[in-house]
Amino acid sequence: MQQYVRQGCAGDDRAHTVGMVDSAFIICPYCGERFEALVDASAGDAEYIEDCQVCCRPITVRLSTGENGDGLVLDATRDD
């Protein structure tokens, strides 16, 4: 299971949201570098592949929304 940090103001861990698109920081499970990714919660739960912006390896990203769409859980794992 991979960690993530949702972007917000300094000292604030709330997500920066524009519509239903959130900006989140993912820690690459390969190289350990942190990079920013956009996640779209408007369609509910999703699974997709995103390449690390640092080492270019494929990461499986799983996005889960809360029961009422009021929370996001982002899981980023190796794709091997």
Q: Beta fraction of the residues?
A: over 45%
What is the distance, rounded to the nearest whole angstrom, between the alpha carbons of the first and last residues?
14 Å
Based on CA atoms alone, the radius of gyration comes out at 12 Å
Number of helices: 0
What features would you describe in this structure?
This protein is an all-beta fold. The chain is 0% helix and 51% strand. It is built from no helices and 7 strands. It has strands at 4-6, 16-18, 21-27, 34-40, 46-51, 58-65, 72-78. The strands form 2 sheets. Strands 1, 2, 3 and 4 form a 4-stranded antiparallel β-sheet that branches. A 3-stranded antiparallel β-sheet has the order 5-6-7, with no helix packed on it. Strand 6 and strand 7 (72-78) form a beta hairpin. The chain is elongated and about 35 Å long. It starts with a strand and ends with a strand. The relative contact order is 0.24. The model is unreliable at 1-18 (pLDDT under 50).
Task: Give a summary of the structure in a few sentences.
This protein is mainly beta. It has no helices and 7 strands.
Set down the secondary structure blueprint:
Elements: E1 4-6, E2 16-18, E3 21-27, E4 34-40, E5 46-51, E6 58-65, E7 72-78
